[in-house]
Amino acid sequence: MRSLNLHLKILIAILVVLGISVTAYQIFVLGIPVTEDATDDLWNIDAKVEFVASAKDPVKIQMFVPPLSRDFVSLNESFISNNYGVAVNRIDGNRKVTWSARRAKGNQTLYYRLVLTKRYSGEKSKIKGPTFRDSIAVEGAEKVAAEALLAPIRQHSADVETFIGEAIKRVNNLNDDNVKLLLGGDPSTAHKAKIVELLLSIAHVPVEKVHTIRLVADQPQVPELWLRSFNGTDWLYFNPETGEQGLPTDRLLWWTGDENLITVDGGKKANVTFSLNNSEMNAIRLAKLTDENTDANFLEYSLYGLPLQTQQTFMIMVMIPIGVLVILILRNLIGLQTLGTFTPVLIALAFRETQLGFGIVLFTIITALGLSLRSYLEHLKLQMLPRLSVVLTFVVVLIAAISLFSHKLGLERGLSVALFPMVILTMTIERLSITWEERGAGHALKVAIGTLFAASLAHLIMSVPELVYFVFTFPAILLILVGFMLAMGRYRGYRLTELVRFKAFLKADS
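Above: the chain's sequence. Below: its structure in token form.
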């Protein structure tokens, strides 16, 4: 017996731990939202390209577009142009769109439009980057100034991250004579980044320029320059003005390197204007769109991967264990008497269509009339099988009659009575009749009311939208329910109704 108890405890522990682990993995690793109302940001970005085309030469415009390699995923990308050929190529980790036309004249306008969201799931691409670079050649006074700056940088740093941060801070100290010499009177962010790159190259630390767009709606945007370096496992991002480490979450990487955003052959006065707006979408729907547009397996093995009609069926099925759990608690802990365990749950499922109030009325009418017929058939001394057949046929006729009269009276809700499980109603009538004969009308009424109460409570709980979503999205939670049910299987204590039942003994002892 002791080994059996240990076996049961181990089984319960395994089920509970497994259920919690799988659910936690879905929530914290895959990022599946806990509530159906959760929404995620959807960004619409427009890049408007304007230039003046030369009438004599062919036109070729090249512009960097986001690589979308790690943190963001594109839901839609379009290149809007008139009589221009469009091609997109990958070059050194960047993506570049090329618009081309044989002839164009005057003011020209092209559009690049991108709809994106945060990368929702799936394994991110393997990170690669350089860990060594050759020194940039520098001579004379510039070399002396660079070496003078590097000495304290080496002294006050412990690794690549602190080395780069210290170098940026030193270069931004415009009161330092060595910095003034290297900047040569140009304190722009781009030139500071160039000096930082020079210092780091002497120390053989690779660094590259990163141009980003800030995801802020309804504000004019210009590409913002950042620096990044690969430490062997990940990219480290740095603000070239402050040395702050870590790229903010609202930054979208647009392109890397020293090249300009746009180049135009056969034209002049090129200008790019960015406009952004933000909207929200249901998180699960957005996750499904993300999964369809990437190689990620975010929802491949979840119930959301099933056809839509099958999903609707499973939304009902996964709630049946919840209803069974409600009945289990009502019977084993509270002591409520019902007609079995599954009869109230099946009646609760029928309430989904009839709604609770109307369903209770229909259940009461059909059961009462069925009991009357069952009482009459008892006088005819029929065998059980013919008797059940007659009651079942009566139930079908009664359901059809109620539906017909409800339709004539304009009570369309009455049509849903056809969804009541006919066999369950027949067996309910039969069992209530037997209970009536064996234990009296009072006990039969008590059991009928208990069954109706249990079915109503199970229906209310099984119909909670938040609970339906949670169980359907995280079905591993059912393993935890199984563990609880196993634990309940060994409960031998008093039920709440028995405390009232044996109250007289307490008074007698006192």
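The longest strand covers residues 267-282.
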